Structure of Peptidase S1 domain-containing protein:
Amino acid sequence: MNNFSLVLLFVISLQLHGGGAVTVEGNGFPGDPCKMGGDVMGRCEEVESCLQDGGVVRRDGKVKLCLKRDSKIYVCCRKPRRIADELCRSWRQFWRRDNGECVQETPLIFGGGNAKLGELPPIALLSTKTGNNVVYFCGGTLISPHFVLTAAHCLQSYGLAVQIEVTLGEHDITTTEMAQQDRLSGSFPLSLLHANELNLDTTRTAPTKQVIKVEKIIHPGYAGTEVKYHDIALLKLRTPAVLTRRVLPACLHSNPTELFGDKELTVAGWGYTYQGFGETENILQKVLVPVENHLKCQAKWSKATSPPRGILSDQICAGGNGRDSCRGDSGGPLIDRATVDGKQVCEQTLVGVVSFGGDCGFGGIYTRVSSYLDWIMGYIAPHGSPL
């Protein structure tokens, strides 16, 4: 079969399985850079190899073909899982001191209660102003010096026109900390947005609490609080966060099929602690929550009218028996404190984003971060395309 026939069959297959336009990018050879759309870059790779390695070939409904003069078809391929893992390796230099110890404080307790000061450096607190009052309403997670990940419904609840700020390095919202933190030294990968500016920054210290205005980016598939799917959003910081021992980016969990078994993950926030009544907490709270079997969770939610199609694979169920996120925790992190060879690593990995639940303590639903890596990486590392 000649090259033209192969291309034609490939085009027909793509149209039948997902639709969208297929365009020819040019005579791309393996490893050549190519544009996937906008500023997002990929590399030309044989289509089967790309897909088997977790790569994606479609962006904004389009597929770019890199034609080569042989019997194989090369497409513009991007591998968000590998890009996320590459960024995580970069973050590790900031999470560990020169003597090998972790930068962040180790936890005082492993159940629930007040988090230790500096225990969760990636956590962010969202706020807005009503008159002269500051209203704290949701959580988030720093995932790069320029971006915080949160829930889409947090942004919709106050209206997209409302100005939002994020506070990084927060612990007790009643205190005003004037102390400065030393900036952590390290280099940023060139795949990261504005990496050159970050690498040239000569800032030596930063406030313990960094308060930064943001721009909102809601996932295009989010359709409102009644539907509850694709409940994820990015906040682009108007000025980049300065990385200190109190402010660090989380790694992003990159395995979309991991079931977690009986694993317990950490959820944190300043939300309610008693069935959604009373007041939110002033001090950051954290609790270990067990990941629930997905089939059991689907059955538990099968009679609910919302979400309309039940619990999907890009959602995670966790908590129950009194251990749960609650109102005010929305948008906050579900974190894995990974271990290697039985030893806990320093960096913290973001597995899910607090989305919704029943009564506090019933168990919550979290947006699975690994299902949205392509969308996330298109913003935070548009030029990242490791093969």
Q: What stands out?
A: Residues 14 and 67 are 16 Å apart (CA to CA). The helical segments are 3-16, 47-52, 80-95, 152-157, 195-200, 294-300, 373-380.
